[in-house]
Amino acid sequence: MRHKMNGLFVELTLIEIFLIILLAFGLLFILYLLSGIFSSVTKKRKARAVAADETAFEGEPAEASSGGAKADTPPEPEKPLDEKELLRMREDDLRKRENRLKEERMKELSQREKFISNRPSAVEAEQSFGGQDDISTERKRILDFIKTAEERHSRGELSEQNYRMIVSDYRQQLSELDIKSRKQGGVGPDL
User: Is the dihedral of CA 86, 88, 94, 97 positive or negative?
Assistant: First the structure.
């Protein structure tokens, strides 16, 4: 093949064209690798910034986290986060989320219980929880809730989906009470 470039004829063979294309793809691949390295570095920096913000939020004075009193000292060099520290940070975050979700779920269940009957919720009853008699009383109360839900479902006041969800929640509470009863030395459910 002959190509004219700036008034000169250049002959390129198929092998040379193939090598030029291969070189172009090689350069693209190198750019791709460099972008991956750059993104991992920025992720680590963001993780450090989040960790620093969380520690500042958890009790450090605002001046120390923003550099108010330490403006004269040079900033400390950033330490690279190892995998254990990243995992610990993620576990802490997940633990906080889990606790928040549990609290929200307990609020939702107590509102449902109040909706089904005008009795105190399981959350309120659990706060006054004591011995084996309290467990059996709580168990009877939950069984009454299940029975009330069944009655409301049969009358058409509860949809099938809500009925199943409510009954499964109460059955889970019953199993937790049975476990608690066994731990306290009881014999478990008296069905």
Answer: negative
